[in-house]
Design goal:
Among the domains are: 14-64; 125-224, TolA/TonB C-terminal domain (2-Layer Sandwich). Helices cover 37% and strands 15% of the residues. The protein is built from five helices and five strands; from the N terminus they run H-H-E-H-H-E-E-H-E-E. The chain has helices at 15-66, 100-104, 139-149, 154-158, 188-199, and strands at residues 125-126, 163-171, 177-184, 207-209, 212-224. Strands 1, 2, 3, 4 and 5 form a five-stranded mixed sheet that branches. It is elongated, with a radius of gyration of 66 Å.
């Protein structure tokens, strides 16, 4: 009995297609294998180049570190004077020192300059000095003198006038009082009496500046109070 094959089940007509597919697959595998090998060769070459560059840089660093500065030149030789040692008995040349120039020079010693103290002019009147003028016996004695010597004006008593009169005067170098004046008035009668009693005062202890008596302007109040 003869067996018949179906044309649909036959593979003869697709044989060429399968052969082409197999060829394409083989070529693809060969291409991949070649690319892989070339990539490895490139990586090996790059690694080798990098290693060579690193070695060159390392050699340069080592060579740079090994370079040393030349030693400094030796110091110049100093000449050493030769000293000749002689015996104590041997005579040596004597050196004479001529002192004529020193003898010809005369040293003059001038006397110390006198310190001239500046004198204060006679017309200078101080307001504040080192030692202020003072009534003999002090301030308490001065107010006692005023209370015992003031004569209260009758007209001021009749008009019940009282107050404090401020007077100013100059104490001379000898303690005398001059230029008595009223700088704060209360009443003409009281002002006049204050000037009178101040002029009746004894000489004061004069003021002093740098240990010397000077003229000083002084101010005192004179109180007038009815009892």
């Amino acid at each position: 009995m003869q067996i018949k094959k179906s044309e649909k089940a036959s593979l003869e007509k697709d044989k060429l297609v399968y052969a082409l597919m197999g060829l394409v697959l083989v070529l693809s595998l060969c291409y991949v294998a070649l690319e892989w090998a070339q990539a490895e060769v490139r990586e090996a070459a790059v690694a080798k180049n990098e290693e060579a560059i690193f070695e060159e840089e390392l050699e340069e660093v080592v060579q740079t570190q090994q370079e040393t500065l030349p030693p400094p030149p030796p110091p110049p030789a100093q000449e050493i004077e030769e000293l000749t040692v002689v015996d104590d008995d041997e005579e040596t040349e004597s050196i004479e020192i001529n002192s004529e120039d020193d003898q010809a020079v005369e040293i003059e010693i001038a006397p110390p300059a006198e310190v001239v103290e500046e004198e204060e002019p006679e017309d200078v009147i101080f307001v504040v000095v080192e030692s202020m003028p003072e009534f003999p016996g002090g301030a308490a004695a001065m107010y006692k003198f005023l209370s015992e010597n003031i004569r209260y004006p009758v007209i001021a008593q009749e008009n019940n006038i009282q107050g404090r009169v401020i007077c100013q005067f100059t104490v001379n170098k000898d303690g005398s009082l001059v230029d008595v004046e009223v700088i704060r008035q209360v009443d003409p009668a009281l002002d006049k009496e204050a000037i009178r009693v101040i002029k009746a005062m004894p000489k004061w202890n004069p003021g002093k500046q740098r240990g010397k008596p000077v003229r000083v302007k002084y101010t005192i109040p004179v109180n007038f109070k009815l009892q």
